[in-house]
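dumping the sequnces here before i forget
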Amino acid sequence: MASGSVADQEGQVMLLGFWFSPFVKRVEWALKFKGIEYDYVEEDLTNKSTLLLTSNPIHKTVPVLIHNGNPIAESLVIIEYIDETWKQNPILPQDPYDRAMARFWANFIEEKVTKPSREALISQGEQQEKKVKELKEAMEVVEGEAKAKLNDKTLFFGGGNGVGYVDIVLGWTCNWMKTIEEVGGFKVLDPENQPQFHKWMANFREVPFIKPTLPPKEKMVEYSRMVRQARLGLVANK
Amino acid sequence: MAGNGDGVTLLGYWASPYALRVIWALKLKEVHYEYREEHLPDKSPMLLQYNPVHKKIPVLVHKGKPLAESLVIIEYIDEVWKHNPLLPQDPYHRAKARFWAKFADEKCVPAMFRAFSKVGEEQVQAAKELRENLKTLESALEGKQYFGGETIGFLDIAVGWIGCWARMNEEVAGVNMIDAEMIPLLSVWFQKFLELPIIKECLPPQDKLLAHTKEFHKMLMMAALT
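..and the predicted 3d for all of it:
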């Protein structure tokens, strides 16, 4: 029997990841939500494996899902693939309009919350102020959506008591946002003016399959500090 | 086959490639729709009501419910009107199509805009990045006629507009964007795609678009000087 890579085995699911990456975490949440068994490979991003470089030659980043030997990159693309391949516990809504709205909000979160947050972590002064302002505006929209969609009976954007696509895409904020604020030296989270969002974060953190996956605060702070210093150092040395 | 009872309205702008790719999707699916032109930069009350988050076109309204973001709209169209599928059936191929559409929107389009709007070294670097990213995009063709295979599909209509806009942009901005020697297969595909009757008939009038592009470039150059 020819021995190919582990990924060549039919049905084998492998996830190339990095413990800190919220993008990887999302994919793990999707896999766990569906009860899919997978092999996790922790990548050293300073010394990327051959498997990672050949599986995602375009971006050379994690997460990469390898299923039936086929590699898929980009967290949102991977989550839709997971949802289409394993039909149990649907992540996206069934109705086409609701699916489209879920995708709309996922895009909004990526463009207006996720990207500016990362940029705020690795910038300072005027540059950072600009990103923080963008973030604050975006959080107003998020709070508005939370106010409109969530209540005592509907804890998550997925409807009812179950998480859905939007929750999984936004979920990184429940833990990473505080770290980014602390290390970056700015404030975006505002419990007084974002009560529904804070309720949602608290509920998300407690979801049984989510809770054990959240990395410890000290480790996240240490890593984020290192990233910020490295990026600011690069800029200063130019 | 869709009839007028479906109540489909598209809010668009004649020079917008994002509205154009939605129009292509509607045409391929033979969906009857009402088109409403937004007179940008003025935004109609309808646009502000239907897309309060971004206040941008295109917006598709179906049975009174609005949707924004062109690729989200195209996937919606594909799911509601099931004939002439745009995305492949197989989940892995669907994932690849989505991956490449994202790549084009995130890596090719901003580089094209920078190559168009900047000057000097910034422009040179942006144009180089664009040409390299188009080369990467070319690999997604995998020797097929179209990204969709024998016929056009989701990825073709997601990125095909770049061929038209890039040619116009490089003429106006004076920097090479489509290097036929570097991307022979993609160049052929751009040409074939844009010549397809169903695609070509929806393109904005080329002379009008050229004048509009020149005007826009002038504005950008003046803004860069102040």
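Residues 1-10 of chain A have pLDDT under 50 and may be disordered.
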